[in-house]
Amino acid sequence: QVQLVESGGGLVQPGGSLRLSCAASGSMFNAYAMDWYRQAPGKQRELVALISSRNNTGYRESVKGRFTISRDNAKNTVYLQMNNLKPEDTAVYYCHATRPGEHYWGQGTQVTVSS
User: What is the mean pLDDT of the chain?
Assistant: First the structure.
């Protein structure tokens, strides 16, 4: 069983930056692929970024060059550095852990980009 707790969300002006963190409990964190999803009001949840257990990364097109996902296996934590934020990045951001036969979600953290 894995519990995920996100932090770091908040209100930021367009062009600003935030760093989201997701702390995982349990063992074998390094065996999980970790993802960040987001869900805006009235829209479906969408994959933002992923990092495999081998540190391979991927991003949705709209955040490439602005967001960076990373992980620290010693701290059981995954990060999402978000730069040059835009109003369309406003959403609840969720951390997700997965490996064959298992997946877990965090409770989400709100990111609001507004002037």
Answer: 96
